[in-house]
TrEMBL record:
UniProt xrefs under InterPro entries: HTH_LacI (IPR000843), LacI/GalR-like_sensor (IPR046335), Lambda_DNA-bd_dom_sf (IPR010982), Peripla_BP_I (IPR028082)
The keyword Cell membrane appears for this protein: no
Domain HTH lacI-type: 1-53
Biological classification of the source: Bacteria, Bacillati, Actinomycetota, Actinomycetes, Streptosporangiales
Protein name in the entry: LacI family transcriptional regulator
Species of provenance: Streptosporangium pseudovulgare
Pfam families assigned to the protein according to its UniProt record, in alphabetical order: LacI (PF00356), Peripla_BP_3 (PF13377)
Length: 326
């Protein structure tokens, strides 16, 4: 920096203001300094800059799942990571991906964030026993959540219309004359699983129909297993609403193995509208959840929070997409 200042004929403080993007430098001085920077090949020392600005320009994306789950065939995770990273990149920030699917990783992530390595935190896939939301709020670092937190903490969040979307799906089945409508619920320690099950039950209660429930874990294998259980428990069921599309794909496989036609014998509705939903046999009726836009909204909430602006939870719409399975 001293060499740049000497080459440009300005003070070291002026060089610092230019390379840090401050607006208190005239355009001609800025151009002179930047010419010297280019001629000398000067690269700012990031660690030193962080000490001065008290910023790292890094944001932690904390996913409370194991690596096997995050890097599985569930496209929700890759969609959220990609959309959040692109939104942060546009804001001049970088993403630090932290996986927290075990007690050991919880402690590691808490220590890393508490060490001042990031300017803010985004939480994804929170479970009711997850200690991180409460621990991170005590660290006084800006925190937002992808989805309503599964624990009672005051954290801004971007979520979808989970209960309302599930109600739309079940009403669609009722309107098409289905009477014995089962559900394959998601994990009940997650808000999305709880809310989609609540929406299913509310719609059936209004129609004076009983609930028929099996529980999966958002994987296609659990959807197939739950579908076989439902058929064994109630062979007369004529529809099933699944809490995500991967479980619906598993349910379609189990129904085909059992000799049941879709939608002739059993109508199937999923949730998420992943790309594969258009290519199942038959194509899957589902509830569209905009994971990419929800992730981008989460980033915008965090950036506003870091700037000290007031933020409120944002709920994204969920629309029914009707295809041939129902």
């Amino acid at each position: 920096m001293e060499a740049v200042a000497a080459r440009a004929g300005v003070s070291r403080a002026t060089v610092s203001r230019v390379v840090n993007g401050q607006a208190t430098v005239t355009p001609d001085i800025r151009e002179t300094v930047m010419r010297a920077v280019r001629e000398l090949g000067y690269v700012p020392n990031g660690a030193a800059r962080n000490l001065v600005t008290q910023r790292t320009n890094s944001i932690a994306l904390v996913v409370s799942e194991s690596p096997n789950r995050v890097f599985s065939d569930d496209p929700m995770f890759s969609t959220v990571i990609r959309a959040a990273s692109l939104e942060l990149e546009a804001a001049g920030r970088q993403t630090v991906l932290l996986l927290a699917g075990s007690p050991e990783s919880h402690a590691r992530v808490e220590n890393y964030i508490g060490g001042g390595h990031v300017d803010g935190v985004m939480l994804v896939s929170s479970h009711s026993a997850d200690p991180l939301p409460g621990a991170l709020t005590r660290l006084r670092v800006p925190v937002v959540s992808y989805g309503r937190p599964a624990v009672p903490v005051e954290i801004p969040y971007a979520d979808g219309e989970n209960a309302a979307g599930a109600e739309r799906a079940v009403r669609h089945l009722l309107e098409r004359g289905r009477r014995r409508i089962a559900t394959i619920a998601g994990p009940l320690d997650m808000v999305a699983g709880q809310d989609r099950l609540a929406g299913y039950r509310d719609a059936l209660r209004e129609a004076d129909r009983r609930s028929i429930v099996a529980v999966g874990d958002f994987t296609r294998e659990s959807g197939a297993t739950a579908m076989r259980q439902l058929l064994e428990d109630d062979p007369e069921l004529d529809a099933v609403f699944t809490a995500n599309d991967l479980m619906a794909i598993g349910a379609l496989y189990a129904l085909r193995q059992a000799g049941r036609s879709v939608p002739g014998d059993v109508a199937v509705v999923g949730y998420d509208d992943i790309e594969a939903a258009r290519y199942t046999d038959p194509p899957l009726t589902t509830v569209r959840a905009s994971h990419a836009e929800q992730a981008a909204t989460m980033v915008r909430l965090l950036l506003a929070l870091m700037e000290g602006r007031p933020v409120e939870p944002v709920i994204m719409p969920a629309d029914l997409v009707v295809r041939q399975s129902a």
